[in-house]
Structure formats: C-alpha cells, structure tokens
Amino acid sequence: RFPANKCSIASRIDAFADEPTSKFGEEMREQVEERLRFYDSGEAPRKNIDVMQSIIKSMASGEGDAPRAEKRKAGGSDGEEAVAKSKKAKKEKKAKKSKA
Length: 100
Hints:
Blueprint: H1 2-16, H2 23-41, H3 48-60, H4 68-74, H5 76-99
C-alpha cells in the first residue's frame, strides 16, 4: 500500500503543479527506500511533511533540475512535425477511400 500511496500523491502533484518537475517523485521514491531500510535496520524514515517542505524550498530558491516541460519543449519541434505529417497522411488516405 505504501508505494501505491506515494505513486498516487506524485501523480496528483504532477497533474496540478504549475511547473512539473521530477523532484517530488524522486524524493517519494527515496522515502519508499527509507521505509524499506526501516524494516531492515530500524532507522526512522523522514516525515512526508518535512520532505515536501524541503522540495518546495529548494524549488523556490532555484535549486534542483529544470522542469520536465522545458526539457520536452527543447526537442519537441521534430515530434510535432512527425505528428502533423502522420495526420496529413491519414486524411489523404481517407479521402482516397471515400472517392473509390
């Protein structure tokens, strides 16, 4: 249940965040690994509120990685052209079928 809850929280953050980033998911993954270490060694994992606040502070100060949206936009023009060509080809194929 614990990993499923973390995935659910991460997906909600991604869906509603103004600037999507992978930091929340990475830290939640680390929390899952901390929980597993807790079962092995008894080392107490960090509280979720502390982890979330540290991520927010690091994002506010400009630390961390670039938002994923910017990474996508950097190489997006080739992908967009491919989609446009694909749609155009489908329309042409449909037009030929309807004429026949």
